[in-house]
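Q: Give me the 3D complex with CU-O-CU linkage.
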Amino acid sequence: MHLRKISTLVVLLLSVHLSFGQYNALVIPDTISGTTFNLSLRDTFKQFLPGNQTITAGVNGNFWGPTLIFRKGDTVHMNIHSFLNDSTTVHWHGMHLPAVMDGGPHQIIPPGTVWQPYWIVKNQAATFWYHPHLHTMSEEQMTKGMGGFIIVRDAEEAALALPRTYGVDDIPLALSSRTFDASNAFVFTTRHYGDTGMVNGTLHPQVTLPKQYVRLRILNAEMERGYNLGFSDNRTFYIIGNDGGLLNAPVSATRVKLLVGERAEILVDLGSDAVGSSVELMAYNAGQEFGFGGGEPSTTGIFGSLLNNRNFNVLHIVVGAATSGAVTSVPSTLVNNTYLTAADATVSRTLVVTDGNPGGAPFQFDHALFNFNTMNKTVALGTTEKWTVINNNVFGHSFHIHDVEFKIVSRSSHPVGAYESGWKDTYYLQINDTVSFVAKFDDYADEIHPFMYHCHFAPHEDGGMMQQFIVVDKTAVDKTEKPSGDYSIYPNPSKSRINFSFTDPGMKVYYVTIINSVGRTMIMLPRPQLENGIDISNYAPGVYFVQLTDEKTKTTVTKQFIKE
Ligand code: C2O
Ligand code: CU
Ligand code: CU
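A: Here is the predicted complex, encoded as structure tokens.
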């Protein structure tokens, strides 16, 4: 064979190897639907690279958990069983729910414990997510892979001609990156930006998508990096949803920035692409303004990464055959949102980003690091408030608040973009930026359990750039008529189930915790429905303690029972 032919063959073989060998099939997380969601948290491992497996922590699996599909109006019951060696929490990012169910840093799930929050799904159709929120441990636990998507469906969304076949033309994409050490363990806290991108826990991912309009539900699940997303041929796409809901109408774009914790739903048209052709979803991160996470120039060190200040491939998309019933156009309008305006607000608050200078104290709000014992703000139930966050500091941030979806009403760095005109719970607070948003703090008051607001950069949040607020019902009846808080447990001893009888029949239960004789928490039940008692059939025989807190006075009375 002629030498030239041989080298051509070699080149051909190489390119075949590259085009098929360099990608891994994108993992599409399993889904759980209905009203009962069983989630098991475990320390585990996953084969990311040749050689050693990587130590991970998973929800019902070994990295990034199932997608929970909620229907608006349903009451969803979470059954969370932690088999982890460390405590954790599970927060429902973006969900509007009671603070005691929110899974923030206060709702600590000790090892071996079952936590059972439940709530009515009041959010409109959108893409949310769940993730650990244990103070100072968020970066580690998120790096290890705990988290997952939540998709809320509702009638308004269902009436629109949008792609919604999960995993076919409706694809969840959790964007992140990781650095591995020489033994393939994740590096965290000493490196905040990963060297290798990943989507849904897949390194070098590739997905085949049908030749039609496809909906991508994109989440920035990073620790600190921002993404300036676009397609490799600069094609136009349509932003249809922000964090907390669909927009009034699609917004066309060729780039969209997503900071940590933000979500965007986009429609992209693959209808003119040839079957078998490909296009890249890209992070156009080169040359971003200073303060954009991942724009730092270095490739090494705590803020260095091989992906920093570079354009890089996020997802290799191969175009496949169209499906039947393909969506072939973009709806001209979406849903009718009635947004809040600045004029609706009756209370205004200001937060200033402070500190964070190299060698000095970590970033914080108003020179106050997060402190479990400090209630930073008190909001009256039902109030519409305008919050202004000022960042004339040394870096950008991703600002997030729990409990509400808000409307951004002004930005000093640039006019509020159409791309961020919908319901938001997280936004990019640029350097030299002042951003105001308006939110209504409705439905859920709780004098004990707070909600959080914080920077969603995990190192900043863990470092204390987080504060807390309670929502209080000022019209609630006063507490002079105190229930006794007393109760009895029957049968006692019991083999399978314990029931409660209350001295004050009107008493409402705020919290029940059962602890075994060596102090291990067995179960945590926020605002439990106790009509059918509590199942103890799988408990080891012995003495247990019930700590029951009543709703009105928040006094806790401890009783003992014996499991036979
Ligand atoms: Cu995504 Cu306070 O959380
Ligand atoms: Cu949140
Ligand atoms: Cu920050």
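A quick observation: The domain at 34-153 is CATH 2.60.40.420 (Immunoglobulin-like).
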